[in-house]
Amino acid sequence: MYVEVLVETKVKSNDMTFTYYVPNIFDNDLIGKRVLVPFGKRIIEGFVINYTHKPEGYDVKSVLKVIDEERVLNDELIELGKFISDKYLCPLIYSYQVMLPKALKANAKVTSGAKKLTYVKLNEELNKAEIKVREQLAIINLLKENKEVLKSSIKSKASLKKLIEKNIVIEYTKEVYRLFDEEKDEKKIILTQAQKEVSLAIQKRFKTNKVILLHGVTGSGKTEVYIDIVKSVIKRGMTAIMLVPEISLTPQINARFKGIFKGAVAILHSALSDGERHDEFRRINRGEVKVVIGARSAIFAPLKNIGIIIIDEEHSESYKQENNPRYNTLDIAVKRSETHNCPVLLGSATPTIESYARAKKGYYELLKLDKRVNEKPLPKVMIVDMKGEIRKGNTIISGVLREEIIKTLAKNEQVMLLINRRGYANYLSCKNCGFTFKCPNCDITLTYHKTSGMMRCHYCGYATKKVNVCPSCKAEALREVGGGTEKIEEFIKNEFPSSKVLRMDADTTSKKGSHFKIINDFNSGDYNILVGTQMISKGLNFPNVTLVGVINGDSSLNVPNFRSSENTFNLLDQVTGRAGRHDKEGKAIIQTFNPEHYSIVCAAKHDYEGFFNREMFIRKRLNYPPYCFITLIKISSKDFNYGINEAKKINVYLRDNLSKTTSILGPSMASVLKVNNVYNFQIILKYKKDDKLYKELKNIIKLYEANNKVKIEIDFNPISL
C-alpha cells in the first residue's frame, strides 16, 4: 500500500506531498493520521492525506512509524484544508497546522501531549482472599469504597506491590483530561417575548445553510438567545460551535454554558496550556461533547453533525487571522455550514458595515433585538470636548467625569474607564533637543512601562531600561508623552485614594487564569474601578457598573485606515453599553478632541443606522468595501532598495495582466515601514470582479518561491491597510 504524505518544508509551494510505502505491520486506516517518514537526511512528521499508487521510475521510501491511534484530521477537515489553501493561496500544510493544537501538529519536536496516570482497583474475582497484614487491609478497604484510586496516592508502596503481585489489586494506566472547571448550576432562563420570537425564527432555519445576522443592542440578551438555540440543537441530536472574540469573554460564557450543559461543553482558546488544548481536542474528536466554546481557532473543532455555528460580537477584528493562512472565521463558518447544512448566526450590537449591508440586500437574514431585557433605556452618553478642559488644567479626566466618578463611588456602584493603549507613556522625548527613543529593529517609538521600568517595542518585543539622561544632548530633560492604562491607573489611585482600582490589559492578563481572576474580582465588588483597553468593551456583564468613562475617544480615529471611523463607533458604542445593564440606570462620558465627528456623535446616540448610512455614503464615494473587494500584497525584504524595486516590478506585472477595471494602488510603504529589521511595502488591489486575479497572484507567488531576498504575502479583505 502506498500513501501521499504532506510534509512541511522550506520550499514555499502550495502542495508538498510525497509518496511512501506502508509496511504490512501498520494498520490500513491511515488517512488523517500523522506518520514518521524519512525525508532526505532527516526524519520528519507528516499527514497522510490520500492513498496512491507506486510512481513509475522512482524508488519509494517506507513509512517508519504511525504516530496516532486516532485520526487527527477527519474527512471534513482534510477537505476544509484544501479549501483554505485554494482560497487564501497558502501552503496546504499551513491549513492543517492551524486547525490543530500544538501537540497534534506535524512537528517531530512535540510529543503527543496525552497525559496518562496509573490507577489501581480491586480484582473483583479475587478480593475475598484472606489478608492479615494491616496495611494491605487498609488498601483493600480503600478500594472497596472507591472504584479506582491513583496509585501515587497510596502511601504504603510495599503493601500495594504485594497485593498487585497476588493479583488481588489490578494496576492499569489510562489517559486523563487536564481541564476541569467548577460547574455551577445556571439559574433558569426565562426569555422575553422578543427573545422567544428571535429564537424561534432561528430554529426555523435549522437544516439550512443560511447566514443570519442578529442585530441586538447592548444588554438585549443575545447570550440567552444563544443558549436557547443550543438547547434546541442538542435536543435534536446535533452539536454546536459558539465563538467569542476575546479570551476575556470566555470565562463568563463558559461558566453559563457549563452551568446548563455540564460536561458536554469543551473549551478551545490560546490561554489554555498545550496539554489542555490537546485534551479538549481529543474529547471533541471522540464525540464526548455537544458544544464547543472558544475564540477564532475553535471554528476548526472536529464536531460531527453540527446544528448551528454562532459567532458572537461578529464585528471583532480578532476573527481575522493575521498570519498564514490569513483566513476570515466567517468564511470558514460558511464553508462548514454548507457541509453540515446548518445556519451561521452572527450576533452584534455593532455589526460590520459589510455584514449589515449584506443583510439589507437580503444575502443574510436580518433579525433584531431593539430593547434591553429589563426595558431600561440605553445609558445616557455625554460628549466632553477636551480642548476646553485642557485650558482648565484637566489634562487626563474632565471635570464632569471626575464629578460623576465621585457620585458613583458614593453610591457603592462601579466605574469602567477605557483608554485603548497599554503602558505608562506612549514614548519618551527630550525637551531640550527633541530626541525620542526608537526601537533599533522597527520603525516605531518605544512605549514606557513604569511598573517594569522598561521601554518596550510592541512589535518585535525589544526592551531596554528607562534612562534619565538624553543620550543625544546628555541633558536631564526627558519627558513622558501621552499615556496608557498604567498612567490612568496611577492617576485614578491618587485622585480617588479610597477607591480600589483594577487594570485589565495585555500586561496584566499575560499569566494563565489572569482574565478569569480580574473578571471575578471586579464582579465580586472587591474593586470599584476597572481601567482597561478595548478588551473591557465587548460582552462583559457587570451588574453594578453604572458609569463608563472613555479617556480618549479619538485614539482609533487617528489610525490611517479606511475602517477607522467604523472601529471608533464600534468601540464607543460597545464600551458605553457596559453601563446600566441590570436594575440601575447607566451613564457614559466620552472625552474627545473631535466632538462633532459623526462616529462619536452617532455612538453617543446609540444610532447604528445613522452611522451606517453616513459611512456607506463615504465608502461609496471612495470605493471601499462593501462597494468593492480589497486584496493587499505585502512585499518584505531586509534590503530597502531591493524590496522597493521588486514591489515596482510586481506593480508593472499586475498592470499588464489584471483586468483594466481593477485599481492598483502603490507600491507604498506599509503603515510601519520596518519591523524586526525587515522593510515592508504594499500594493493594494480594489476590484468588484477580476477573473484573472487568482491566476496572476499564484504566478507571483511561484515567481518568488525560491527568492530568499524577498517575501510575498497575500491578504484578502485585510482588516487594516
General description of the model:
The structure is a single chain. By secondary structure, the chain is α/β, with parallel strands linked by helices. The protein has 6 domains: 2-104, GIY-YIG endonuclease (3-Layer(aba) Sandwich), CATH 3.40.1440.60; 115-176; 193-369, P-loop containing nucleotide triphosphate hydrolases (Rossmann fold, 3-Layer(aba) Sandwich); 380-422 and 484-619, P-loop containing nucleotide triphosphate hydrolases (Rossmann fold, 3-Layer(aba) Sandwich), CATH 3.40.50.300; 424-482, no CATH class; 629-716, Alpha-Beta Plaits (2-Layer Sandwich). The protein is built from 19 helices and 30 strands. Strands 11-12-10-13-14-9-15 form a 7-stranded parallel sheet, sandwiched between helices. Strand 25, helix 15 and strand 26 (587-592) form a beta-alpha-beta unit. The longest helix has 18 residues, at 640-657.
CATH 4th-level superfamily of the largest domain: P-loop containing nucleotide triphosphate hydrolases
At CATH level 3, the topology of the largest domain is Rossmann fold
Mean pLDDT: 91
Q: Bin the strand percentage.
A: 15-25%
